[in-house]
Amino acid sequence: MKKTLFTLLALVTSFAVVHAKETQPKHEDSIADKRNKILQENDLNKDGKLDSSEIDTMLQKKKEKHEAHHQEMLTKYDANKNGKLDFDERAKMKSDQIQSRNSSENKTNK
User: Fold this and answer.
1) pTM score above 0.85
2) Are 74 and 83 in contact (CB under 8 A)?
């Protein structure tokens, strides 16, 4: 009984290790793809590196995008127009986000 249990445990462990190794390159590839995309979009002088001014520009773009999204959400969900999202307004926003995410997942699973 102990030997069978040990063998089963060894098989499960080896399967997990093999499975992890098979899936790992996909994750590493996606990280490398994201890194390359960021470099291509922001390496303005095309030297293959991001210098401090390019990083500053990249962060500024990200900040502007975030602020625009924040303003868009405020405009859409601030029902009483006080410039703040109260509990009910945030709950509506979260509910809409969850519905949108579920809808997107259902479309990809078909």
Assistant:
1) no
2) yes
Q: How far apart are CA 89 and CA 80, in angstroms?
A: 9
Separation of alpha carbons 3 and 1, rounded Å: 5
Residue 78 contacts residue 88 (beta carbons within 8 Å): no
By CB atoms closer than 10 A (0-12, 13-18, 19+), residue 103 is: exposed
Give the other-Cβ count within 10 Å of 76's Cβ: 13
- Amino acid, single-letter form, for residue 31: I
- Give Cβ neighbours of residue 41 (< 8 Å, ≥ 6 apart): 58
pLDDT digits (tens, 9 = 90+) for 56-105: 999 999 999 999 999 999 999 999 999 999 999 999 999 999 999 888 77
Rounded-to-integer distance, Cα 16 and Cα 59, Å: 39
